[in-house]
């Protein structure tokens, strides 16, 4: 089920909220938790119920492993060590994810290297598998280190499946979430939280439906026609995807945080105006923040600990490898690996720059950071190497800088004609609206306060209410088609 669907907004969400708080009001707290688990599994199954056994099996397996790691007295009587159980659990999760996400990728590369003809499995990636798998890997690590103990299967299953975060994050930690579900005050309907949640939800919905989905048209057309785009068209294509990805994913996160708040659950923030970053280090502290924290805690730190002694060079190596893994986590393709390598290399350069205490103007730091990420996303979005290189060629002017018909359009119609955009962006089917839209979203992201800052200053006034009514009504008018979130693919 999609957040940006009528059935979710007008049926699923209100029914889930009302029943949950009614059960809590009747002191049926276990029943309320069971209800929330049920609706979360229903939400997950809406897309394809055949994947329900997968997530249930994953939950039961990791709950069992976590229980064994927490039960130290029982393990003392066994010959197997905690470390062996922990490593077995993590390995099983990695193999589980690898089978569904990377098996065809491995087969293609084996066929290429060994000149074999192993048939592809053509496995359809289950929704949310990357997120609920790494969430549970983090739980196993925390359980192994004694940070968390979970003896209740219902609570654990709710932690994993809580539907606002299930399909695309943010990535949660057991120690941060379960005390909130257990808090008695959180079991009482809080109208201020409902209002604040709706405020954040409709901002996210507007981002997705009005901004991201509009930009997706130009981005999709441009990448499909990459081999023939001129300089201007190629840059508009690249920027359209850069902003589409941000507004699509941050829009999902806003909606997830908003829905969580309606249930009195505060989910971790995932974005903090990343396109305002003045360095790549600053960028990764602002973009997909829960993933950055996961990579730092569960990938970078263990790599660094694996060395017998610490050195600055080893820390840089650990950063590069961690981002390489992060890139591969995003998708089964060499373009994703290369994208991760680019991010890792940029972080290494940035750390070396800081170590030498070199300076540059903030505006120039922003310019380099934004354009580096924009260019790197060409590999993130492209279907293959050929597609990525074609777009990059267009971005450096291999296919010309402006359309040959531009001069004639200006001569016959004038500079400010409505046909100017159509002439400039003929290769991507754009118009003046496309150019104006890109300028507008750049102002949104570079100048205005982000959604979390707006939420922090939220007051349920009539002006705010009118604002919510306007953007929600306008968004509803444009929700005529099904549009998945980009991170569902990862």
The 3D shape can be described as: globular
Distance between the termini: 17 Å
The structural domain count equals 2
How many distinct helices?
22
Strand content: under 5%
The number of distinct β-strands equals 0
Main sheet: strands, sense, barrel = none
Q: State mean pLDDT (0 to 100 scale).
A: 91
Structural class of the helix and strand makeup?
A: mainly alpha
What is the percent of helical residues?
A: 55-70%
- One letter per element, helices H and strands E, the order comes to HHHHHHHHHHHHHHHHHHHHHH
How is this structure best described in words?
The chain has 490 residues and is an all-alpha fold. It folds into two domains: 6-188, no CATH class; 210-489, no CATH class. The chain has helices at 6-25, 29-45, 52-70, 72-76, 82-114, 129-144, 153-161, 163-166, 174-182, 191-224, 231-262, 280-284, 289-305, 312-330, 334-355, 362-381, 385-395, 406-413, 420-424, 432-446, 451-456, 462-477. The mean pLDDT is 91.
In short:
The chain has 490 residues and is mainly alpha-helical. It contains 22 helices and no strands.
Helices and strands, with pairings:
Blueprint lengths: L5 H20 L3 H17 L6 H19 L1 H5 L5 H33 L14 H16 L8 H9 L1 H4 L7 H9 L8 H34 L6 H32 L17 H5 L4 H17 L6 H19 L3 H22 L6 H20 L3 H11 L10 H8 L6 H5 L7 H15 L4 H6 L5 H16 L13
Helix pairs in contact: 1-2, 2-7, 3-5, 3-6, 3-7, 5-6, 10-11, 10-22, 11-16, 11-17, 11-20, 13-14, 14-15, 15-16, 16-17
